[in-house]
């Protein structure tokens, strides 16, 4: 099953904070993709592009334009899992 995104937030240094329908929250570092995938370079070079990220209708892909997108399963698998705030306060 493809994970569906519930919330999406851009953070400094080309990072995304993503919450999925199953409650998992991850931090995904897009900077690594910018270094390795030539078509992602505008995310670092064009002012405001990174913060204009959108979620597609199916909630299974984020995109910036017609050439730059990122599937939710990649974010889910390779993102660094964050501890939800409700659990962090009880630890």
From TrEMBL:
Protein name: DUF2442 domain-containing protein
Origin superkingdom: Bacteria
Organism of origin: Adlercreutzia shanghongiae
Pfam family name, one: DUF2442
UniProt-listed SUPFAM superfamilies: NE0471 N-terminal domain-like
């Amino acid at each position: 099953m493809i994970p569906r995104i519930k919330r999406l937030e851009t953070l400094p240094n080309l990072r995304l904070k993503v919450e999925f329908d199953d409650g998992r929250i991850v931090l995904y570092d897009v900077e690594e993709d910018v270094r390795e995938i030539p078509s992602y370079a505008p995310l670092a070079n064009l002012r405001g592009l990174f913060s204009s990220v959108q979620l597609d209708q199916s909630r299974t892909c984020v995109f910036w334009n017609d050439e730059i997108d990122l599937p939710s399963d990649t974010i889910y698998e390779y993102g660094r899992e964050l501890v939800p705030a409700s659990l962090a306060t009880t630890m």
